[in-house]
Structure formats: structure tokens, C-alpha cells
Amino acid sequence: MMVLGALPLGPILWWLAGAPLPPQWVGRAAGLYYAHILWFLLIPLWSAAGWSPRLGGFLLLSAAAIAVRVAVGEGGAAWVGLAPLLIPVALLFLSPRSARSQLGLGSSAPARDALIGLGAALLLGGHLFFSSSFSLGHRPRLLPLASVFSWIAFDAGLTALGGEVFFRGFLYGRLKALGWGFWPAASGSAAAFVLRLIFDPGIEKRWEVLLGTAVYAGLLGIVFAGLYQWRRSLIPSYLASLGFLTIYRAVAARP
What is the 8-class DSSP label of residue 101? Predict the structure, then answer.
């Protein structure tokens, strides 16, 4: 019910942005909401701290932000594309502190963790850049500045955040709590991560793309779990994921 109550906020903000309203926006917004937020963010938070009015507020604001972003897409006013950034803000101020702590959404040395994450992003993203350039002939593409910020906001608030909270903070953490060692737990969470990307409708279904996706997703899953295990925080893996996705979007265009 709270999701349904939030969805009407999308058309209002969209109308203010001056973008036309396609009839299929509700289904797309709801689908993206359940795929990236309800599954990847709400379940871990609910499991860690139980239901609360604060968590309900987080759900409401997140649903509205996603509805706006999906509805607008690449059109409309540029500022509307930044709507997903409301999600990490809502996570910080509305989710229970105990849940954030249990899921690794904190740090005792944030500056060091940030540098580690950015370094990992450069290493992994650099490898992707050179391998895709030589094997698939992809070249970096220049996007309009508004699109660049829109996609960074989308990944910061949805893709990277949801993936790290669910696959590392929640799934990997649960496997470790069950007594699994690092390699079994990291491999298990990475395998789930691979499956999620293989069946992503946004991934091309060419065999070389699927194979490359599986290899990179498996590698990222292991590395990000290692960062989480080492630093006891999701900040390094979150920033590494965000940086990697930014480079990926720059080379994802066909030659």
C-alpha cells in the first residue's frame, strides 16, 4: 500500500519537469522498484532490524524517487535524473542505525575506505576498458553531461547501492554467519550476483557478452566480498562498484 501511495508522486514531479507522460510508466516504475529496491534494500534492512515507521518512510521516498527516474528516462528536465540520489540520503536518515551497522553501512576510517574503493574501481574498470577495446572493439563514447550525471545518480542510488547491500552486506554476511569460510561464502554470493546480471533484460544476449558478463560479475563478486571482509564496511565495494559501472557505461556502446 505504501508503494502504491508513493507512485502518484512520480507524475506530479514529471509534469513539473515538462516531460510527456508515456502510458507504460507505472508498470516500468513498479518493476524497477521491486527489482532494485524492495529486493536489494528493503529485505536486508527489514531482516536486520524489523519493520518500523522509519523504514516505511524510507520505502515511501525510495518508491517516489524510482518512479520519477524510470518515468523520465533520458528526457525531461536534467535535475529529475538525479532523483535516485534521494535513496542513499533516505537510507542514511530514515533506516534504523542498527540495520545499517549490521549490513556494513558505516566505517571507522571513511577516508581510507574511500581511497581503497576508488583504487579498486580504477584497476577493475581499467581492465574492462582495455579488454573490451581489444576483444569487442568497443571505444569510449562521449555522452551529454546531463546523461552522465543521470546515470551516475542511477547507479549510486540503485544499481551499486542495492547490489552491495544485498549481495555483500546481506547474502555474504548471512553465509558467513552460518559458518561458511571466505571462499565458499564469497563464491556463493558471487554466483547469485552472476545469475542476477545474466538475466538482466538490459544485458545483450549475445554469447560473448553473456560470457564476459559472467566472468566479470564473478570476479567483481569475489573482489567486493574480499573488500567487505577486509574493511568490515561496504564503502570500499560500493565505491568500487560505482566506479566500475561508470567506466562500463562509457564503453558499452557498440562500435
Answer: H
Do both 163 and 246 map to the same domain? Answer: yes
Distances (CA, A) of 243 to 83, 123, 126, 145, 223: 19, 10, 10, 17, 14
> Is 75 in a helix, a strand, or coil?
coil
* Judgement on whether residues 124 and 245 belong to the same structural domain of the protein: yes
Do residues 228 and 237 make contact, with C-beta atoms less than 8 angstroms apart? yes
Asked if 59 and 77 touch (Cβ cutoff 8 Å), the reply is: no
Tens of pLDDT along 79-120?
A: 667 888 888 888 888 887 888 888 888 888 899 999 999 999
Residue 134 vs residues 46, 143, 171, 203, 209: alpha-carbon distances, Å: 44, 22, 35, 20, 14
Domain final residue pick, 69, 101, 133: 101
Cβ neighbours, 10 Å, residue 68: 26
Q: How many Å apart are CA 122 and CA 126, to the nearest integer?
A: 6
Query: Quick one: 92 and 133 in the same domain?
Result: no
Q: How many domains does the chain have?
A: 2
How many residues comprise the chain? Answer: 255
Residue 207 belongs to what domain range? 108-251
**194 with 159, same domain?**
yes
The single-letter DSSP state of residue 159 is: I
pLDDT (tens digit per residue) in 55-75: 888 888 887 777 776 666 555
The pTM is what? Answer: 0.79
Judged by DSSP in three states, 181 sits in coil
- Decide if 237 contacts 103 (C-beta within 8 A): no
